[in-house]
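REVIEWER CHECKLIST
Item 1: Sequence provided? yes
Item 2: Single chain? yes
Item 3: Sequence as submitted:
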Amino acid sequence: MLYKDWADKKEALPHVSILKANEFEMEVLTGKSKVQEGAKYLAGMGVKEVIITLGSHGSVIYTDNRFHKIPAFTPTKIVDATGCGDTYMAGYLSKKIAGADVEEAGEFGAAMATINIEASGPFSGDFSKVEKVLNYGTHEGYEKVFSWTEAWSSVV
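Item 4: Structure as written out by the authors:
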């Protein structure tokens, strides 16, 4: 896949409250390959919450000069990853609007993305399924994972 830098980012990013990118998009936008450097770069350009998704390795949310490690959940099966980033953000934003903190909203989005990858087509889960992933974890075949240690280890 070919990614292209965003020519107007310097003018636009100061007006962005929440920006979500995967690790490849982040590198194109920032020129940085390490998550912590890319997230800080985007925050330095004015973004208030920077979300970097790392697929099956989890995600990182940088806000108020603090990193939040958000686990991924191991799906019971992988059918179609199309739309997982959008599904993650739908869950994240719905929880943020309801008053959740960054970590709760991130985990909710990650749980929704896990359900999404287990079927083809648009998200077809419901709140009870998301809660099952969040609350029962391995009892239902799901496991929390944050394993992108190369990117994360240099943050500490």
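Item 5: Key structural point noted by reviewer: Residues 73-142 form one domain.
Item 6: Recommendation: ____
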